[in-house]
Amino acid sequence: MASESKGGLGFLSAPPAAPRLSDGEVAAKYPRMRGQVFLGIFLGYAGFYLIRNNVSIVSQIFKDHDIMNTVQIGIVANSVLIAYGLSKFFMAMLSDRANARYFLPLGLALSALVNMLVALVPVITASVGLFATVMFINGWFQGMGWPPSGRILVHWFSTNERGWKTSIWNCAHNVGGAGVGVAAAFALQNWATSPDDWRPAFWFPAIIALVVAIIAFFLIRDRPEAVGLPPIEEYRNDPAKVEMTDDEVEGMSWVQVVLKHVLTNRIVVLLALTNVFVYTLRYGVLNWIPVYLGDYTGAEVSDGIMGFAIFELAGIIGTLLCGWVSDKVFKGWRSGAGILFLAGTGVAIALYWLLPSTAPIWMFYLLIALIGGLIYGPVMLIGLQAIDLSPTNVAGTAAGFTGLFGYILGATLASTGVGVLIHNFGWDVTWIVMIVICVVAVIFMWIVGRDERKLMNEREAQASATE
Ligand SMILES: O=P(O)(O)OC[C@H](O)CO
Question: Can you name a GO cellular component term (predicted)?
């Protein structure tokens, strides 16, 4: 891609193509490099989740020791989410022109630094405003994780294998999410100087994240062409679903490309809208598990936390299954898998709603696992579709655009909107609204699916015509 080396980002700019290696060298080096860069983004993205929002981990300590009340905790936690949603889009615009080998480790190291400052500089947490501002900055650096990972996925893995590979990579966020709990618990147990000392839960995961950033730097390479290898489409003889024409490559500025292929691209805009509903479902069910189980069944707080963990763990299985189904059953037609999993989510939510309050807790857990397993498929698929259905040099921006909608609208609706629904209308109306959201999401995914199918058919026709 001609524009790859013209990033204008100084040392961060994407490197130019290196001289092409011989066929023998390509055959030996390509598989090894693919494994190496994949490990780099898997560890790297898990590292981001170690330090994304550790406020929620220590919120109980904040509350119990009157360091912060729930409203203040909510303000700080929301500032991370909002910054993350904005950054996932705006930093992606830089990432698409940047060397992923530098961009991802830099973001992770900066985020680690912010977490260490929170732990070690008491004045930051003395005021909610300053704490929220610093965590906003943390959320901003967190947005430097997904886009370079998407860039690696789109440049090193071709269309017909990307579903499965992306779904495996996507489990990094579940691994990191589980890892932060273990790391924080270990740190608090070993280094907390008093029952209200929450600081080890910030600085210890940050040290691990710094080490991960260094490892990621050594593992990641920006693009196959940057190390003398052919583009992945050529190496695997698997055309991309969308490519820029020669006229576009030569004649359009990068901003014009973003405008055409992301901001006014019907399919990317539809994906972003679908993501609002998918993220409302993801966080709308997840965030309220402890409250629902407590209200409806009288379950203990610990039962609710168990439900929370079950939802996340089931997400790993569902994500892998969804990626595999999209490659093997739907042959790269991601929307087919998305429709199937979203429809399943609707059914599972209906069962969760209708289960009698006297049913044993394991039945609630089973349905929570089903909802978590099913909704994380579409969560992963939307990012995957965005990078699949846009040219490779704006793939991260397209995924970031869907993330912007998912976090700014979806996650907000899931917290404030669902809270208002529960408070004013009760659980029955809340679950009915959730099921309606599933139906709307299915309709949006079906519309995306028609466009996706058309693009796939066009690419296949072009590929057979050139054979
Ligand atoms: O919600 P995010 O941006 O952390 O992304 C989580 C998954 O990777 C979505 O594919």
Answer: plasma membrane
Check if the beta carbon of residue 395 is closer than 8 Å to that of residue 151: yes
What residue type is assigned to position 110 of the chain?
L
Q: What is the DSSP string of 208-243?
A: HHHHHHHHHHHH--S-GGGGTPPPHHHHTT---S--
Burial label for 280, CB within 10 Å (0-12, 13-18, 19+), is: buried
* Rounded mean pLDDT, 340-360: 97
Residues framing ligand 1 (Cβ under 6 A): 88, 146, 170, 173, 379-380, 383, 403
Token readout for 221 is 């390479």
Which ligand 1 atom is nearest residue 48's CA?
4
- Alpha-helix residue ranges (DSSP H) falling in 389-417: 395-405, 412
Q: For ligand 1, atom 6, which residue shows the shortest CA distance?
A: 173
Average pLDDT over residues 141-151: 96
Identify each DSSP E strand in 295-421 by its residue range: none
| Model-wide pTM > 0.90 | no
Q: Across 331-413, where does the E strand assignment appear?
A: none
Q: Whose CA is nearest to atom 8 of ligand 1?
A: 170
In angstroms, what is the span from residue 88 Cα to ligand 1's centroid?
A: 10
**22-44 pLDDT per residue, tens:** 999 999 999 999 999 999 999 99
Ligand 1 pocket test: which of 170, 384, 404, 408 has the largest number of ligand atoms within 8 Å of its C-beta?
170
Give the number of the atom of ligand 1 that is nearest the alpha carbon of residue 172: 8
Q: Is the pLDDT of residue 1 over 70?
A: no
Q: Which domains does the chain have, with CATH numbers?
A: 21-238 (1.20.1250.20), 258-466 (1.20.1250.20)
Token output for 155: 């440049």
